[in-house]
Amino acid sequence: xxxxxxxxxxxxxxxxLSALEGRMINIEESMGGVKDTLKVLEGxxxxxxxxxxxxxxxxxxxxxxxxxxxxxxxxxxxDNQTE
Length: 83
Description:
The protein has helices at 2-63, 67-82.
């Protein structure tokens, strides 16, 4: 009788372990997807930082010129952004 109870406990333990392993696999797969998404987002933020710096430089340059030169600079910047 005792061996029957022990084997039932062992079977339950194996079932629980198997279920946990399955969940761990799902978590690991999800984390891989999250890591890929983070890499894409980091690339986007790098591009945004670069654009912010370019815009700051355009504004600083435009403010240091006369109104006509400022219009030309802003128009050139807008043309570059639409391309």
